UniProtKB/TrEMBL annotation:
Keywords: DNA-binding, Transcription, Transcription regulation. The lineage of its organism: Bacteria, Bacillati, Actinomycetota, Actinomycetes, Micrococcales. The keyword ATP-binding does not apply. Residues 1-69 form the HTH gntR-type domain. It comes from Microbacterium koreense. This is FadR/GntR family transcriptional regulator.
């Protein structure tokens, strides 16, 4: 490994062992470089890399600190990648959501509290009274966030929150263009809650898989139709 890689690994080990804790300030550059046995240039490159992934926070004129290491902070790198996606990768995002949300639903079926179940049921009731697709999608986002929180895994919740917020446009599009999409969403949410309340993990996971797959399959079909239309236009111009 290069000296920079060695420095990154060493700082990581210091955090893992608790020698450096969230909020701690790193020793001065010269001192830390001597402790780690790396050059100042290599240490600087290591710090830049760790700053980029939000492990370190460089405060000009003050020093370098370990961040809170909160999952939401560490997942911001993933958020950036998701935010700059193109439509061709949107289907892949739904595929990831389908797998992770099914797992979250299975976990929720084994540990969901009455408070959470009541909150989910309240979301469904509010969904029935919505006047616009935008409002329904907003409640849909809250529904999935609340359900994922039951798993008690902040990284899972963070990843799903990022993916969910980046697929809003497709969900609104489906709600506006596909007949019965709104009623189907509400019915599927109700069925998922019933499975979670009944403690049936496999059923909850299967229902969530079908729920996400519904949008995923619709999106694939919409993309295919758009491709066919574009091809037809191209053939027409060729004629």
């Amino acid at each position: 490994m290069s000296q920079t890689d060695n420095a990154i690994a060493a700082v990581k080990m210091m955090i893992e062992t608790g020698e450096l804790k969230p909020g701690d300030r790193l020793p001065p550059e010269r001192e830390l470089g001597e402790v780690l046995g790396v050059s100042r240039n290599s240490l600087r490159e290591a710090v830049k890399s760790l700053e980029a992934i939000r492990v370190l926070d460089v405060r000009r004129g003050d020093g370098t600190y370990v961040t809170s290491l909160d999952p939401k902070v560490l997942l911001e790198g993933i958020s950036f990648v998701v935010d700059i996606h193109d439509d061709a990768t949107l289907i892949e995002m739904f595929s990831v959501r389908r797998m992770l949300e099914a797992a979250a639903a299975r976990v929720a079926a084994g540990c969901a509290s009455e408070e959470l179940l009541g909150s989910l049921e309240s979301i469904v009731e509010r969904s029935r009274a919505t006047q616009t697709v935008d409002d329904l999608v907003e409640l849909d986002t809250v529904f999935h966030r609340e359900l994922a929180s039951a798993a008690g895994n902040r990284y899972l919740s963070g990843i799903l929150e990022t993916l969910s917020s980046s697929t809003v446009r497709a969900r609104v599009w489906r709600g506006l263009s596909q007949t019965g999409a709104v009623d189907r969403t509400i019915a599927e949410h109700s069925a998922i809650i019933a499975a979670v309340r009944g403690g049936d993990a496999e059923l909850a996971g299967a229902l969530m898989t079908a729920h996400i797959a519904g949008v995923e399959n619709w999106l694939k079909e919409a993309a295919r139709m758009l491709d066919d239309a574009d091809q037809g236009d191209a053939d027409g111009l060729a004629d």
